[in-house]
Design brief:
Number of strands: 21
Strand content: 15-25%
Number of helices: 14
Distance between the termini: 59 Å
Structural class: alpha+beta
Shape: globular
């Protein structure tokens, strides 16, 4: 399959809005499917069910943000036939963060704000020691995205958001004069934790950016919805065979403090789990090529860069279709004939798009990544207790 030249031609054609992906699922737990906990009712009101344009009742089973997180997280898993990390198999520049004992704390594929995440900024020293272009990645924008492509590629399709900058921090200080002052207030002794947190704030690598460049909306949106639904409530409970007959307290102390004792079925409707019967479960995804064309590259060929982003996104999404254990009660199966991909054009009917087999797509992404400058291996960062992130972890854990 000549998939690479096909994607290159779609990128060149400004009449192409993007690529749509449609998948039909069924629940493997029977006639019901379970939405995320707490999404159906909030504050006693039904907020998780809505009516479609055709008059059916529907509910979200997996949201945009959740789908993006699941796609990214696959990079740090052994989800391929070789049982290697997906990142290793395609040469993706994954950063694995461990403590001094070798336990994985997180990875660059699991940061909420991606390269703009505070965790990433607190690792500045360790990242630069490993030769990672921290400054370029941190300061990257749509107008200059080379460092993202080679150092933090998922930020391009899934978006990023700088929630804190020098500008936003100084503005807050101006709105609240004296709030961040180190001077002691009458009747108040400054706590050690306050000093430690202030020092950690100073360690964060804030970067002044124009507000229009400090964030990028996701190019790839995906969600799974159940249509034609009817709700079934479950009164979940637990019976403790050892301490169930002891009552709720022993010697004036509640057993629940120790995690012991029976848990009677809840009467709180907000906390009561909901299952949904359904007519069908559908997944709809869209990768915007119009949005991708707004990314500019200077050191990497633009067509190569954009083709790599498209193929990486398609690889992660199609791989996710084999790992649909979303939660208890939401184990899904793709219904035949599988995911249908189409090219969405302005002013024209959609055209079918045949996707490569998973192994072919992995090889193509690896080839494109090598040409674009991917290092071809993961990088392990060991967090020292004396580093900014290490200090914060110690503070959270109650360390000195």
């Amino acid at each position: 399959m000549n998939f690479r030249p096909l994607i290159e031609s779609l990128i060149h054609d400004e009449a192409v809005a993007g690529i749509t992906l449609t998948t039909v699922y069924e629940s493997l737990t029977g006639v019901t499917v379970t939405p995320p906990a707490g999404t159906i009712r909030q504050g006693g009101e039904v907020v998780g069910l809505f009516t479609t344009a055709t008059g059916e009742t529907a509910a979200t089973i997996d949201s945009w943000g959740s789908q993006a997180s699941r796609c990214e997280a696959l990079l740090a898993t052994r989800c391929t036939p070789s049982h290697h990390l997906l990142a290793d198999e395609i040469g993706y520049p994954l950063v694995i963060v461990t403590d001094e004992e070798g336990r994985t704390l997180t990875t660059s594929a699991e940061l909420s704000h991606r390269q703009a995440d505070a965790t990433w900024r607190l690792l500045k020293g360790e990242l630069e020691t490993k030769g990672i272009n921290f400054k370029g990645i941190q300061q990257a924008t749509r107008d200059s995205a080379d460092a993202l492509l080679t150092g933090f590629p998922t930020a391009i399709p899934f978006g990023w958001w700088h929630s804190h900058t020098k500008r936003s921090r100084s503005q807050k200080a101006g709105d609240n004069p004296g709030k961040n002052s180190s001077a002691k207030k009458p009747g108040r002794t400054k706590k050690v934790d306050d000093d430690a947190m202030e020092a950690i704030c100073d360690d964060l690598d804030y970067y002044v950016m124009d507000p229009s460049q400090s964030r990028s909306a996701r190019l790839f949106t995906s969600e799974i919805m159940a249509l034609g639904v009817s709700e079934r409530r479950r009164r979940a409970g637990r019976v403790d065979r050892v301490f169930g007959g002891a009552g709720g307290e022993v010697g004036g102390k509640r057993l629940s403090v120790l995690g012991l004792g029976s848990l009677p079925p809840t009467e709180d409707e907000d906390k009561m789990p909901s299952d949904l019967t359904y007519r069908t479960i559908e997944g709809h995804a869209f990768l915007s090529l119009t949005g991708l064309r707004s990314f500019q590259f200077e050191q990497v060929d633009e067509v190569l860069a954009r083709t790599l982003v498209v193929c990486l996104t398609l690889l992660l999404y199609t791989t996710l279709q084999h790992h649909l254990d979303l939660r208890a009660g939401a184990e899904l199966r793709v219904v035949e004939p599988g995911t249908r991909a189409q090219v969405a054009r302005h002013g024209a009917a959609p055209e079918p798009l045949e996707l490569p087999a998973p192994d072919e797509l992995r090889k193509l992404v690896r080839t494109l990544g090598r040409e674009a400058g991917w290092p071809g291996k993961t990088t392990t960062i060991i967090v020292s207790p004396t580093s900014p992130l290490g200090k914060l972890l110690n503070l959270v854990d109650g360390g000195k």
